């Protein structure tokens, strides 16, 4: 059982920080062309690997065939073991092997919790017993107390990202 904020922590993991923040940095003009190309390559690998796990059919513990993604949701099954056994073939960059595997494995294992948090972030969260809608919106910085201000760097980056269509 997760605590009330565990799903939020799943979204803000270190292994997916570049996938979440590089587009925002690019919109703010902080990302070089070389770094952007590395990001796009990693993002393509990540999406490709998620798709490969959905398509790959493996034998489950009961003997029936299930997708590798479904099998990976079991606590005893690890992605690095499936790769080592040759049951799953993924596009992995050797320089960032651990990061690639961790990102895909965590996304697949906690898919339900991640979707639940995304619904909450989009304003469609479940209501608590008191009738208030649970969301994960932050109150903003102390300087602007949640209002968009001109001086606060955080607010400037969020505003810039929103204009370019990225969700901050």
Overview of this structure, please?
It is a single chain. The chain is mainly α and 168 residues long. The protein has two domains: 6-127, Orthogonal Bundle (Arc Repressor Mutant, subunit A), CATH 1.10.10; 138-168, no CATH class. It has eight helices and two strands. The chain has helices spanning 6-11, 17-27, 33-55, 68-72, 79-84, 97-109, 111-121, 153-163; strands at 57-59, 65-67. The protein has a two-stranded antiparallel sheet. Strand 1 (57-59) and strand 2 form a beta hairpin. The longest helix has 23 residues, at 33-55. The chain is globular and about 55 Å long. It starts with 5 loop residues before the first helix and ends in a 5-residue tail after the last helix.
What are the salient characteristics of this protein?
Arc Repressor Mutant, subunit A, mainly alpha, globular
Please give the domain count: 2
Q: What would you say the CATH architecture of the largest domain is? A: Orthogonal Bundle
Q: CATH fold name of the largest domain, please? A: Arc Repressor Mutant, subunit A
CATH class of the largest domain: Mainly Alpha
Which helices and strands, and how do they pair?
Blueprint lengths: L5 H6 L5 H11 L5 H23 L1 E3 L5 E3 H5 L6 H6 L12 H13 L1 H11 L31 H11 L5
Antiparallel strand pairs: 1-2
